Amino acid sequence: MPEKNTGRISFRWGTGAILLLALVLRWPVPAPSWTHFDEIAFIVLPLGFWSGDLNPHYFNYPTFHFYLSSLLYLLYYLATSAESVEQFVAYHLLVDGRDLLALVRGANTLLAVATVGSVACLGRRLYGVKEGLLAALILATMPLAVRFAHLAIVDTPAVFWSVMA
Q1: Which residues of 152-165 are buried (b: 16+ CB within 10 A; e: fewer)?
Q2: 144 lies in which domain range?
Q3: Which of 96, 126, 26 has the alpha carbon at shortest distance from 163?
Q4: CA pair distance 51, 55, nearest whole angstrom
């Protein structure tokens, strides 16, 4: 029985260390002036929902993350803004949407780290503790996964939801 508890403790410590590594590799979110060409969709489409039309009219990307981004923007608006909704939307659409872009980038970074944890748990359940930790370590240090985790694009959330399914 003590061996089983030791395995749980080592899995928790190992997963915690890998999650910390994943966060350190992914967190330095690039400056808002550095953008990916797909990121403009994360400013325009989520703010478009604020008009009352919840149809994005754009289906090149999975739309669930646009709805989550819109909810994140709403929370940001309620917490920080004293201006009207129209002024908030107009300013961020036409003048400067960098703070909204930073919010989505931060959310994607957290989803990327959560994906690493989910892979560790899934690998442990399917193959064992060592294999789960190895799978999480591979994903945590995979260059393409680290690169896309910084950006406000749908790739990272799509991987998260796929692993969770």
Answers
A1: bbbbbbbbbeebee
A2: 2-164
A3: 126
A4: 10
- Nearest CA to 69 out of 95, 39, 90 is that of 39
C-alpha to C-alpha distance for 58 and 49, rounded to whole angstroms: 12
Report which of 122, 120, 79, 73 is spatially closest to residue 99, judged by C-alpha positions: 73
Q: How many domains does the chain have?
A: 1
pLDDT in tens, 88-119: 999 998 898 888 988 999 999 999 999 999 99
Are the C-beta atoms of 103 and 72 separated by less than 8 Å?
yes
Cβ distance 56 to 64 under 8 Å?
Answer: no
Task: Tell which residue, 18, 21, 34, has the closest CA to residue 150.
Answer: 34
pTM for the structure as a whole? 0.87
> How does pLDDT run across 48-60, given as a tens digit for each residue?
999 999 999 888 8
Nearest to 106 by CA among 32, 161, 20, 163: 32
